[in-house]
Amino acid sequence: MSFLKSLFGVSDNSDAASARQQESDRNFDILKYDGIRALRQGDGDYAVKCLTHALQIKDDGECREHLANAYLQQGDPMAALGQMNVLAESEPDNSALLLRKAEVAYLADAYDVVADTCMTILELAPDNSRACLLYGRAFMAQGNDIQAIAMLTKAISIDEDCLDAYLLRGGLLMKLGDLDGAGADASLLVGKVPDSEDAQLLSARVTAARGQHQEAIEIYNKVIELNPFCVEAFRERGAIRLALGDKDGAEADMRQVLELSPHELDGTSGDFTAEGREGIQCKVEQNYRNMNPYGF
Predict the structure, then answer these.
(1) CA–CA separation, 49 and 36 (whole Å)
(2) Are 239 and 294 within 8 A, CB to CB?
(3) CB–CB of 119/126 below 8 Å?
């Protein structure tokens, strides 16, 4: 029997094909799991090489998703989006996968893709608050503040604990001059997460915009207690201090801004000695006039 199989080449061909398949599977597994290991160890370059070669052997969804993460680790969200597009095409009704694609698209500044993907998600799952939040972010990035507010409001209506939506909406409402609406969002956030730097910063900005300068300074003080490296808090508190005539306080805040973000104040010297103080104060005043968000 074995002589006949050998004579007609059945056994040899079958065995050779099986051996090749086993070798291919083994190589795929080695490349895939070496890539995953490299990704976990923070070696994005090697992870990309391994996972790319693995996908040349066999298309595998898990492998492709890890490759997208490797590209993100490398700081290449557009390449990651390419992988997520392939995955989404293979599972067009998978809302979780589509949401991941939308998140990657947002990182890649592909806001049209974010919007289209979120629209699809909401058709599949109308109560997906995360999709509404991302949709709102995309509108914001495109300068469509009204649509952004509408979508962020929808996210809140679905999930009242969607704190990011309150924060973003509050900032937009303040930008549009609706201080009551912005203040309501800020108050809610401070009530829910009093130790949130972002919540306190929004509250300080609304308070300052209302002209309640001393109260705003007190809130900025809280922000700085929460985060002593918050450039925005020092800069904005300094602007208020300058408007109130506290040049020394404004200069101290400007010094902190310069130390924390030395490239932010072009042409401002770091020499705060007594000899250079008069010139520094002039530069401080000019810089605050240039950057002041409240029009003081």
Answers:
(1) 11
(2) yes
(3) no
Give CA–CA dist 250/269, Å, rounded. Answer: 15
> Do residues 156 and 124 lie in contact, with contact meaning Cβ atoms separated by under 8 Å?
no
Could you tell me the two tokens for 209? 């915009």
pTM over 0.85: no
Quote the Cα angle for 78-94-86, to 5°.
Answer: 35
pLDDT of residue 285: 60
Nearest 5°: phi and psi at 133? -65, -45
Nearest CA to 26 out of 49, 52, 58, 48 is that of 58
Residue type, 234: F
Query: Which pair of structure tokens corresponds to residue 219?
Result: 């809130």
Output the CA angle 89-95-100, nearest 5 degrees. 75
Query: Quick one: which of 165, 168, 166, 173 has its CA closest to 187?
Result: 166
pLDDT at 126: 96
Provide CB contacts within 8 A for 76, sequence distance 6+.
none
- The letter for the amino acid at 87 is L
The pLDDT assigned to 214 comes to 96
In angstroms, what CA-CA distances link 142 with 109, 111, 136, 155?
A: 10, 7, 10, 19
Q: Count of alpha carbons within 13 Å of 36, Cβ hemisphere only? A: 12
Mean pLDDT split into 10-residue runs, the chain, 296 residues = 48 71 86 92 92 92 94 95 96 96 97 97 96 97 97 97 97 96 97 96 97 97 96 95 94 93 60 47 58 51
- The Cα–Cα gap between 242 and 281 comes to 10
Nearest CA among 261, 221, 225, 226 for reference residue 238: 221
Question: Percent helix, strand and coil across the chain, each rounded to 5?
Answer: 75, 0, 25
